[in-house]
Amino acid sequence: MDNTNWYKQSADKPLFDDVLWSKPEHRSKAGKLLIVGGNAQSFAAPAKAFQESITAGVGSAKVVLPDSARKVLGRTFHEANFAPSTPSGSFARIALADLLDNAAWADGVLLAGDFGHNSETAILLESFIKKHQGILCITQDGLDYFISEPAQIIQRSNTLIAASFGQLQKIVAKVQPNLVLKHDMNLSELVGILSDWSSTISAGVLTEHEGYFVVAVGGKVSTTPATNTSSWQIPLAAHASVWYLQQPTKPFDSITTAVYDFSKI
After folding, report:
1. For residue 61, how many C-alpha atoms fall within 13 Å in the half-sphere facing its CB?
2. Fewer beta carbons within 10 angstroms: which end of the chain, N or C?
3. Hey, CA dihedral for 103, 67, 62, 163, is it positive or negative?
4. Along the 265 residues of the chain, how does pLDDT read in single tens digits?
5. DSSP the chain
């Protein structure tokens, strides 16, 4: 029996032409994205996300890094803002006020990754997603902070989880042990599971399996052939964040269209 909630998008034809053609042409109307991530040892993830958000057509983007990165970057990254860091160079819990102030400026926030593994950062991110009510996308090691208690993110509205298949396995197993995601399962099996599961959660899901990007929101699932599945999480999460904040009332349509647009690059 065909899954009527499965929307198959081809590489050369978008499913939602209206979303594609209604994309803002002027930067003043193209939305504002806040990108958060990095630590003293690496800030490649937020830097990559910033570049990809520009490619995706965001109106304006800012990056917040821990101030441990200031000495390395200096004045070379004009869009960077800095928040308090721990002695080890990750975000400190007292950075919450800075993140919330910057998030108030933005139409959407992307937790882009390279956070490292730090208990203070864990407290910070948990506090931030509780207090910030707007559009939020979480990817890379930002997701790892929530895998032990994923209800915090999967039951949060206005949220997109851009997860590797392995991360998605852990999240699903934690909240619904009877659902088993396997690396060798076929695409149809995955679509069936995500169709059922996504109808029980508030967040949307974006992942990759068997050469397809898969979007699941509210019981609907779209699949799109992936032209490049190598290190896709940060760049595609940035594209999805931009399209989502530009079409916030149509999360499934906008994220699916972001995948199409990303696949054309």
Report:
1. 25
2. N
3. negative
4. 467 899 999 989 999 999 999 999 888 899 999 999 999 989 999 999 999 999 999 999 999 999 998 877 766 677 789 999 999 999 999 999 999 999 999 999 999 999 999 999 999 999 999 999 999 999 999 999 999 999 999 999 999 999 999 999 999 999 999 989 999 999 999 999 999 999 999 999 999 999 999 999 999 999 999 987 789 999 999 999 999 999 999 999 999 999 999 988 7
5. ---TTEEE-BTTB-S-HHHHHTS-SSGGGS-EEEEEE--SS--HHHHHHHHHHHHHT-SEEEEEEEGGGHHHHTTS-TTEEEE-B-TTSSBPGGGHHHHHHHHHH-SEEEEEE---S-HHHHHHHHHHHHH--SEEEEETHHHHTTTTSTHHHHT-SSEEEE--HHHHHHHHHHH-TT----TT--HHHHHHHHHHHHTT-SSEEEEEETTEEEEEETTEEEEEE-S--TT-HHHHHHHHHHHHHHSTT-HHHHHHHHHHHHHT-
Instruction: Say which amino acid occupies 137.
Output: C
CB atoms within 10 A of CB 22: 14
Amino acid in the structure at residue 63: V
Query: How would you classify the pairing of strands 108-113 and 80-83?
Result: unpaired
Q: What global pTM score does this model have?
A: 0.96
